Amino acid sequence: NYFTFAQQWPIAVCAEHKSCFIPDSVVGWGIHGLWPSSDTESKGPENCNGSWPFDINNVMPLVPELKKYWPNLYPDTKANSFWEHEWSKHGTCATSLPATSNELKYFGMGLKLHAKYNISRILVNQGILPSKTAGYMINETEAAVKRELGVDAVIECVYDKEKTKKQLLYEISICLTKEFELISCNKKEVSETTCPRKEPFFYPPVHDDFPQIDISVI
Q1: Short-list 188, 213, 163, 130, CA closest to 16
Q2: Pick the residue with more confidence: 72 or 40?
Q3: 173: Cα within 13 Å, side-chain hemisphere
Q4: Strand, coil or helix: what is 210?
Q5: Which residues are responsible for catalysis (predicted)?
Q6: Which residues are marked as active site?
């Protein structure tokens, strides 16, 4: 019925995976995936064509950009395994549309959407910057993202139980029609966030020299 386009914050991704490395070339929000979605509870479809395995040769022109904007942060996995997983699970379900009918078009569309709806830029425009100390409240953040997009997004957090013992901003998903026009993700008109409602979440910088602010709760 529609697409879900998810972008993830590298620091929070690494909070969930012990073997994790963020290359210097990765300086902002990375693509998690471009997922064909349905209005059913299961969210699918998934794994639509097992006879069409991912072939890195079909996306070679995109590899430099994919490494930067759709990176695999797990050094204990094969270099191309993230793209292979996303293609097999999700990309094969998008091939009926001309805009995503093969690997090159599918991954190219993900990169185009990342450039058009860049979460780093959307948050900066609303005064939400990475910080080692600032905490953000989910209600204000949801409203800020909606001011930028005009529709509801889904904002997710993850608890960093190993290092900071804090809730970290993890992923922001937007929803689009099959013509790639923005629509609200909240079909039931209620927030689907996994972030805490009554306490702040945190948005630490990817690298120490990353632009950031140094204040408390916003």
Answers
A1: 163
A2: 72
A3: 22
A4: coil
A5: 32, 86, 90
A6: 32, 86, 90
- Give the pairing type, strands 167-176 and 2-8: antiparallel
What is the per-residue pLDDT across 167-176, written as a single tens digit (0 to 9) for each? Answer: 999 999 999 9
Q: Is residue 132 within 8 Å of residue 142, measured between CB atoms?
A: no
Q: What is the Cα–Cα distance from 108 to 110, expressed in whole angstroms?
A: 5
Angle, vertex CA 31, rays to CA 37 and CA 167, nearest 5: 95
Residue 136, both tokens: 């953000």
Task: Please report where in the chains the tokens 């019925």 appear, as a residue.
Answer: 1
Contact (CB, 8 A) for 188 and 43: no
H or E element in which residue 158 lies:
strand 154-159
Beta bridge partners of 37: 2
Burial class (CB in 10 A: 0-12, 13-18, 19+), 22: middle
Question: In Å, how far are 30, 49, 52, 60 from 57, measured between CA atoms?
Answer: 22, 19, 14, 5
The pLDDT tens digits for 98-113 are 999 999 999 999 999 9
H or E stretch at 103: helix 103-116
CA distances in angstroms from 207 to 123, 129, 135, listed in the order given: 17, 13, 18
Spatial separation of the C-alpha atoms in residues 50 and 165, rounded to whole Å? 40
Alpha-carbon distance of 45 to 48, in angstroms, equals 7
Q: Distance of alpha carbon 214 from its chain centroid, rounded?
A: 25
